[in-house]
Amino acid sequence: EQKIKLAHGRIWCDVGFNFGATAHSAKFFKKISKMTCALKVYMNLTTGPLLVEKSLDRELIFKNWSNSSPIIVHAEGEALEVAIKLAKKHQRRLHITHILTEQIELIEKARQDRAAISCDVTPHHLFLTSEDIKKLGPLAIMKPPLGSVSDQQKLWRNLDKIDMIATDHGPHTLSEKESDHPPFGVPGLETTLPLMLWAVSKSMLSLKRLIEMTSINPRKIFNLPIQPNTYVEVDLSKKYLISNRGLFTKCGWTPFVGLEGRGEVKKVAICGQSIFENGKFVGKPQGKVIYPT
Question: DSSP string covering 211-259, please?
Fold first, then answer.
């Protein structure tokens, strides 16, 4: 409720909130279920106090989430197998976020067993590899960690099995990332479109498929309302190298410096109202907090 109030008059586009689950918060699931797009469960190490490791706690969470919205899990290794088993046991929809190459086979097997599973991949796992860590240093600290070039190539080859592109936007400041205890995560919100349009220009996926992964599928998976007259106008002829200059994110940096971007956003309209034109936001923030339909 506090986040919803804080968002009023401050967000440019419509936004939905997830609820970070712990065993202690399970008693609130019924109260907050209609206010959230999904429940999120961290089953591996993360930044903050939301890690859920105990088997009984995980069982309690999956059992008590009776909403039709999915349970998002951040799970690697054995934790993913546990999440799939719990989802099947309690007949919950499961969304696996930030997948790695070794998870694809497990997800496909569960789908063949008729499990209700969707998944996403991040831009940083598609466009960066462990070879970039030397250059990026602590800026490359993230969960899951960057994989090898071979891992990256396998993600691209299996893109047809992945439902969504999810930015996993973590706008930590440079001072935070360069501290003695750097948090996990990198910013990625505004660089996702130019990176993916570059991939389209190289025939790594079609424009239709990109629209599915960034717009159509997320709406279906999270039961989001249709937004009429909502669109982005892009000049696809524009080519440029991504840099830290001119970023809108308040942290002021990107891990994708030097990579080629395609497409210049000329206009963004939300429900018929223009909010961004020719490189600038226009008017006042009128975004709404949205809820599953």
Answer: HIIIIIHHHHHTTPPP-TT-EEEEEEEEEEE--STT--STT---TTTT-
